[in-house]
Amino acid sequence: MPSPSPLTEDLQPGLMIVHGNRLEDLRDLLVAWLARTPLAPLEDELMLVQSNGIAQWLKLALARPHEAGGMGISAAVDMQLPGRFLWHAYRAVLGHEAVPADSPFDKSRLAWRLMRLLPAQLGDEAFAPLRNFLGEGHVDPARLFQLAQQVADLFDAYQVYRADWLEDWAHGRDVLRDPLGKALPLPATQRWQAQLWRALLRDVGAAQRDSHRAAVHRAFLARAAALEARPASLPRRIVVFGISSLPQQTLEALTALGRVCQVFLLVTNPCRHYWADIVEDRELLTTERRRHTAKPGAPATPPYEELHLHAN
Questions:
Q1: Which one of 150-154, 289-293, 298-302 scores highest in mean pLDDT?
Q2: Which residues pair with 140 in a beta bridge?
């Protein structure tokens, strides 16, 4: 185990990404790094994990004795889910006045707002699919609440994964953008989503219409690009442990914070090789069926040590 360094003030900002196919290996690397570059005695260590189970497992691993590969104690470790931390980072960079502690577009609040707004929208022809579900005439409150929860969950996901759709809908463009950015017309059966999003923006008012996660994230990236020093409420080090996939928003935010914080990503990856070098099965089939024969003496199948270049 490396001996602790007393130079806690020399913690350099930056973004480090380490891949591993065993959580135990990533854990041992993290323990070694924390021991080599410790924080100040009264400074909390921030770690982002994907579940409470991983958080508990990691705390127990850190508390193992030194001879067992641990640190002997697990204290002053703040385990958080990425979404919760990101909202704190938005407020730290943009200011508490610009970003509310609780957004009116949070899923739990959104469901109740939608339950109030939906009945007034059902007369519009675009809302025919919802009208068919809720029933003509009298609206069943149980069904309305169920629908409001499902739509709130949908809009919550759009704020993270489809911010470009919400931006178009807010400006009256009823389109869907594909991964390449090409705008496609919104199907008639789905136009109620764009109209309902605009109704939500009108309902929260001009002062709060940009307080949803997608808009706050854009403002955060613009402000973070100009940061010259770390805001006092942000930690000097951010550890992201054992998360195999993250939304693009989270990766963008962590990259931006790497300018002023030390961001350490330990990512689980089932393959020890570089995925972009792997040849797809379709390409192998094309090669196998080509008219020209292979060179004389070439093996029919690749050597074992090169199999990782050929699909799974």
A1: 150-154
A2: none
Mark 171-180 as b/e (b = at least 16 C-beta within 10 Å): eeebebeeee
Phi, psi of 265 (to 5 degrees): -100, 120
Mean pLDDT of the chain: 86
Query: What is d(CA 195, CA 162) in angstroms, rounded to the nearest whole number?
Result: 16
Which pLDDT does position 299 carry in this prediction? 60
Rounded distance between C-alpha atoms, residue 267 and residue 82, angstroms = 14
Rg (CA), the chain: 25
Q: How many CB atoms lie within 10 A of CB 222?
A: 12
Tell me the C-alpha distance between 106 and 292, whole Å: 60
Buried (b) or exposed (e) across 67-82, using 16+ Cβ within 10 A? eeebbeeeeebebeeb
Amino acid letter for position 3: S
DSSP strand pairing (14-20 vs 45-48): unpaired
User: Residue 208 and residue 212: Cα distance in Å, rounded?
Assistant: 8
Q: Which residue has the tokens 């196919």?
A: 21
Query: Of all helices (H) and strands (E), which one includes residue 113?
Result: helix 107-121
Angstrom distance (rounded) from CA 147 to CA 128? 14
Higher pLDDT, 29 or 136: 29
- The number of residues in the chain equals 312
pLDDT tens track for 106-147 = 998 999 999 999 999 998 999 999 988 887 767 888 999 999
Q: Read off φ and ψ for residue 136, nearest 5 degrees.
A: -75, 150
